[in-house]
Amino acid sequence: MRYSTTALFAALASTISAQAEDWQQCGGMNWSGATACGSNAGCVKINDYYSQCQPGAAPTKPQPEPEPEQPKPTESPSTGTPAGKGPGTTLQSGYYWIRGVAAPNFHKYMQTSPLYSTGSALLGDYTKAGQFQVLDGQLVQLVSAPGEAVKLLYGVVSETRYINDNSLSVTFSETKNVHGKFAWQGDGLTWTVAGVNRPNASAWYVCAGQKLYINLGNYLYQTPAGCADQTIHYYNDIKANN
């Protein structure tokens, strides 16, 4: 079957028009426009209602990612030893809630499991939110009850790389962190260390079991299977909420 030159150009024009331009919308709830991006851009979900073509983001058909390597139990335990009764569900003076503000972890809060224990840093339900602060580069969790002597756990960053060889686990321990420093950038929680140039100091992953990992790579690019990109932010209302 032969096609005329006019028909061929019409088909090409239709294909091009079906692509969203860089930084334009390419998806979202009730979106009826173009859903494909150019060859050098990927359609990145911002929220349930808006996705955007971002140059340099993951291509429409990314290469298969390797299966995530799970942390060794000694590096990133799923459970730990209770370290205190905890401050409860009312925010104590000088501390913050820390939570995600984007899907799929919108208003999921940093905590450990069991609550107020040593173990992996997680993002979980607001009813079990921990209370945190950054002191002298240490991420600390308050685990003592009101009226008791202050007792803290420390966010410890592994020196071993895990998932996609670009992720560092974060656990809470009774001993201080010696690998890098935490800080607030605006209301976002960052981590930096000498010798590692992170593209985004506030980039995190939330992976299997809702465990938190520091993402050493690019945010929203080549995200490992089973993980979600996330930034996490302090929140200082008197109560955590969803």
UniProtKB/TrEMBL annotation:
Q: Does the keyword Signal apply?
A: yes
Which named protein is this?
Answer: CBM1 domain-containing protein
Task: Pinpoint the CBM1 domain residues.
Answer: 18-54
User: Which portions of the sequence form the region Disordered?
Assistant: 55-89
Q: Which Pfam families would you find in this protein's record?
A: CBM_1
Residue stretches of biased makeup (Low complexity): 73-89
**Source species of the chain:** Ampelomyces quisqualis (Powdery mildew agent)
Q: Which Gene Ontology terms of cellular component type are present?
A: extracellular region
InterPro entries in the record = CBD (IPR000254), CBD_sf (IPR035971)
